[in-house]
Task: inverse folding
C-alpha cells in the first residue's frame, strides 16, 4: 500500500489507484447482475401473451434490451481491461497514471449512461406488465432462480453455516409426494475428509465405468464424484416405494433451487448411488429396506458454467 500512497501523492490524484481498482471491480459485479436480469427479462418477454399491441411493445423493449446487452458486453470487456492495467500499475509504478484516471472517468460516464438506459428499459417493461393485466409473464425471483441454476463442479473453501443447510432441507421437505408419503430421508455429510474418502472408494470400485462416461475423467480432478464440495446430502427412501424416484426428484429440485436462491450452488450426483457397492456403505447405516436415490453436492461455487442449449421441439398443444 505504501508505494501506492506515494504514487497518489506524486500525481495528485483525486482518487487513489486502489479506489479506482476497487470501483472497477464493483462495476464488473453490477454489469454482471444487469446482464443476468436482462437475460431473464428478455426470456420473460418472449413468453408474453398479452394483446397484440402490448405484445408488440414488449417485443420492441426486448429488442432494445438485446442491444443493451451487447453494449454491456463491450463495457464489461473495457472495464476488465482497465482493472487489469490498474493492477499492473501497482506493480510497475512507471505508467502514466493520469491517463488511467482519464480512462476511468470515461468508463464511468459510459457506465452511468448504460445504467440510465438499463433502468429506463426496465421501467418500461414494468409498465407493460401492468398494462397487460397479468397476462404478460414477467420474470420474478422464482423464475430467475430457475433460470440461474446450473450444475456446478468447482467449489471454493467457504464453509456452509448450519442454518443454511437446515433451510435447504426444510425447502426439500416442502416438495409434493405421491399420497403425501414424504418418503425422503436426508444424510448430511459435512466432513470433507470423509467425503473425499467416499469419493475415492467409488472411483476405485467403478474406474472402468467412469472411463466410459462422458465428462468424467478420474485423472482430471482430485474428486470426480463430489467435485470437492464441502457438503454432500444423500437422499434416501424405501426401495419398494414405486413413487419414491419421482418424489425424491422433486425434493432434490426444491433443495437445489433453495440453495441457488441463498447464494449456494449444487450438483446432483447420480454416481453417488454406487457407494452401495463399496465397503464404506456400512458407515452410512442405511436401513436394509432403504436405498440412496441421489446425492446433492452443495457449496459456494467457484465457476459459472454457461447455460446449455435447451431442446424446444418437445411440446405439442392438443
Ligand atoms: C439424476 C441426475 C444425476 C446426475 N448425476 C451426475 C453425476 O453423477 N455427476 C455430475 O457431475 N453431474 C451429474 N448430474 C448433472 C447433469 O450432468 C446436469 O444436470 C446436466 O448436464 C444439465 O446441466 P445443468 O444442471 O447445469 O442444467 C446429474 C443430473 C441428474 C438430474
Result:
Amino acid at each position: 500500500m505504501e508505494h501506492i500512497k506515494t504514487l497518489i501523492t506524486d500525481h495528485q490524484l483525486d482518487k487513489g489507484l486502489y479506489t479506482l481498482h476497487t470501483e472497477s471491480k464493483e462495476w464488473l459485479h453490477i454489469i454482471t447482475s444487469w446482464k443476468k436480469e436482462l437475460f431473464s427479462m428478455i426470456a420473460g418477454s418472449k413468453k408474453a401473451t398479452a394483446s397484440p399491441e402490448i405484445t408488440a411493445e414488449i417485443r420492441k423493449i426486448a429488442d432494445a434490451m438485446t442491444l443493451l446487452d451487447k453494449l454491456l458486453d463491450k463495457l464489461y470487456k473495457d472495464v476488465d481491461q482497465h482493472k487489469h492495467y490498474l493492477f499492473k500499475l501497482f506493480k510497475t509504478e512507471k505508467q502514466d497514471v493520469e491517463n488511467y484516471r482519464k480512462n476511468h472517468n470515461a468508463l464511468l460516464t459510459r457506465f452511468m449512461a448504460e445504467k440510465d438506459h438499463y433502468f429506463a428499459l426496465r421501467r418500461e417493461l414494468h409498465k407493460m406488465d401492468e398494462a397487460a393485466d397479468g397476462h404478460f409473464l414477467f420474470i420474478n425471483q422464482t423464475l430467475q432462480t430457475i433460470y440461474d441454476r446450473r450444475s456446478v463442479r468447482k467449489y471454493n473453501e467457504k464453509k456452509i453455516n448450519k442454518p443454511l443447510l437446515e433451510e435447504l432441507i426444510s425447502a426439500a421437505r416442502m416438495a409434493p409426494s405421491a399420497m403425501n408419503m414424504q418418503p425422503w430421508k436426508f444424510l448430511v455429510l459435512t466432513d470433507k475428509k470423509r467425503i473425499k474418502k467416499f469419493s475415492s472408494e467409488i472411483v476405485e470400485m467403478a474406474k472402468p465405468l467412469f472411463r466410459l462416461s462422458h465428462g468424467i475423467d478420474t485423472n482430471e480432478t482430485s474428486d470426480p464424484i463430489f467435485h470437492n464440495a464441502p457438503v454432500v446430502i444423500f437422499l434416501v427412501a424405501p426401495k419398494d416405494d414405486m413413487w419414491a424416484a419421482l418424489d425424491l426428484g422433486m425434493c432434490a429440485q426444491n433443495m437445489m433451487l433453495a440453495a441457488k436462491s441463498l447464494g449456494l450452488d449444487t450438483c446432483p450426483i447420480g454416481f453417488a448411488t454406487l457407494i452401495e457397492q463399496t465397503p464404506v456403505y456400512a458407515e452410512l447405516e442405511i436401513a436394509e429396506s432403504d436405498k440412496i436415490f441421489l446425492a446433492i453436492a452443495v457449496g459456494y461455487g467457484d465457476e459459472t458454467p454457461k447455460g446449455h442449449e435447451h431442446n424446444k421441439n418437445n411440446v405439442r398443444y392438443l
